[in-house]
Design brief:
The structure is a homodimer of 364-residue chains. Chain A has twelve helices and 15 strands.
């Protein structure tokens, strides 16, 4: 694998690590020599580099044409509109001739769909970064004059959020895991519940169909996560696409017969895809967010306590520093009763984070 | 990890591989620098080297005192006799003053317990090597004059064979997976069925208790596999000990909440042990034995066919050459119906091996 440094989470456990910069074409070309297939665990490799790799004869999955729709939210919105797939109303602000034209377009949009609206950076945002809630055009003046290429979306009347995780091989085989609920806090996914408890089987089926259709229409090879809103009116609206093993699929490591990581490799290597059957009636993944440092008990001791308390909860720590709010790991709990499994996963993640909630849970 | 070569199965996938010789104390000492704990995936590291590592302040689990009982079958038999644990009748032939004294001892033993008897190399045997069925002392003349240190055991009246897999931490915590049946062919384990279908719950409990007791009495840290015979009289007899993740536990990778590999690491690092709950009612692991080379379809194509036919069967290939009869990989199948799961695992392993059986199964 190509890693930015030997201290990267994946580099700590993988064989054959080469250190290099994914923004540097020479590094990419040198790394690709001798690879059967090149793939990613993030979407930040510049599109022109991917095209250059393909032009040099390297097999790259997902390819630049597909990955574009995960890198460029305006291209994604435009393509989904062409496909008549359900999405929030939106408008591109990036092709306005100047900031005041963009402001006029924003005003027109907000007046039409209703304020507040959501302004998003077209590329580079994640975990709530690059997303702004805008109550009036005044709120957006600084943004519009800034460096980001922007689009605007209606603020959907969200009941809850879901993710439909699928995989597709170059041969065209598709597979879907059960659709999950993704619980958000301050724009960060804190919990994933499989299967999504509040979702009707009809909506779940529709969500899977939408995700498989997007994978096919966009020519995705590998894992595709389609994040969606379920509105209070019971409608599905597509929010984001990710073309790689995704946080909303970490539950599959223990919770499904084939994990998203194994499936991604099967897909990009064009092997038949594996069974996505769940291994328990309820699976909950809770993200461990970085909390305060220098707390007592220290992390390793917390891991000991947690393993002793719940021998069946699995702990994944990524070897990252505990910056507050950063996703530094996750835990997975399996079982039969939603409330029990969920509270166990929640308490375990909070205890590892040592947030306020955790202190209560750790002493009850 | 320390590997004999970068082409070793584990070295192909592990981070931080150092190439060295486990029979060379300098290599071991150099490798151990900076390790919190040193452990093994085989039992061939010389006992005196393990003692030297411990003397140099290295934490070694299992330690030389425990590992001796997996390295030296006479020491193991003697210790189990002291503990009054059920085992075949046996006699040490290695401390006879010469070959004719050993022959006299063998004759006396065979006449007492009944011929034929089993003669075993005290160290170094595996997969049927170092084990001889002896019908009369004449059969053993060459062996007795050879280099092997030998012991003799009665030939038990075996109904079937089982393995009790447990783990123990330095803290003294023990855990046991469901007891499995191990199906042998020509002295090689070809199939592992979890839980052992023909075993009463009383005998299963007794087998687990025996394994946990051995782990405690011998001071084992890590995974311990206790291979046992179930006699036609319904008695348990201890056959062999292995102190490491073992072929009889490969089913736990997909078939149990905590795999033997995770548990071994938890144990040697003195973390609390994980849940050993099975993830399906029936789990069958079948070993892939090396078959003929240059057959059609080639291995990679066979893997494709197999994945397409059974998306839920998991294939593990160790990156070893396909020497006939050698364990080169295994497959795991999970389900509800014993016969169905077993025939699926059997056919998958045979097809990968491309033995005669496989040819039939592949075309039916």
């Amino acid at each position: 694998m190509l890693a930015e440094s030997g201290d990267d989470g994946a580099a700590l456990v993988a064989a054959d690590v080469e250190v290099g910069d994914y923004r540097n074409l020479e590094d990419l070309l040198a790394f690709a020599k001798g690879c059967d297939v090149v793939t990613f665990d993030h979407e930040h490799v510049p599109s022109e580099h991917l095209q250059a790799l393909s032009a040099a004869g390297v097999t790259v999955w997902p390819d630049a044409n597909a990955l574009l729709f995960a890198q460029d939210k305006a291209a994604m919105r435009r393509r989904l509109s062409e496909l008549n797939l359900p999405a929030p109303h939106w408008a591109d602000l990036s092709d306005a001739p100047d900031a005041s034209a963009a402001a006029a377009r924003l005003t027109e949009f907000g007046d039409r769909v209703g304020w507040p609206v959501i302004v998003k950076a077209i590329s580079g945002g994640y975990d709530g970064r690059g997303v702004w809630l805008i109550h009036s055009v005044e709120d957006a003046r600084e943004l519009l004059a800034g460096e980001h290429r922007l689009l605007v979306e209606e603020r959907a009347d969200i009941d809850f959020e879901i993710a439909a995780l699928v995989a597709r091989s170059p041969f065209g085989q598709g597979s879907a895991w059960p659709v999950v609920e993704t619980v958000q806090q301050d724009g960060i996914c804190v919990e994933v519940i499989a299967p999504a408890p509040g979702l009707s089987s009809e909506l779940a089926e529709t969500a899977s169909e939408i995700a498989l259709r997007i994978a096919g229409e966009l020519g995705v090879v590998g894992v595709l996560a389609v994040e969606m809103f379920v509105t209070r009116g019971g409608e599905l609206l597509i929010n984001e696409l990710a073309m790689r093993p995704h946080n909303s699929g970490h539950w599959t490591i223990e919770g499904a017969r084939t994990s998203q990581f194994e499936q991604h490799l099967r897909a990009v290597l064009d092997y038949p895809l594996g069974s996505t059957a769940p291994s328990a009636p309820v699976v909950v993944m809770a993200n461990v967010l970085g909390g305060p440092e220098d707390v007592t008990p220290a992390l390793d001791e917390r891991v000991h306590h947690l393993m002793a308390r719940w021998p069946d909860v699995k702990i994944h720590l990524y070897g990252k520093g505990f910056r507050p709010g950063r996703k530094v790991g996750h835990v997975t709990a399996l079982g039969r009763e939603l409330d029990e499994v969920r509270s166990r996963a929640r308490a375990a993640a909070d205890y590892l984070s040592m947030g306020d909630q955790a202190k209560v849970d750790a002493h009850d």
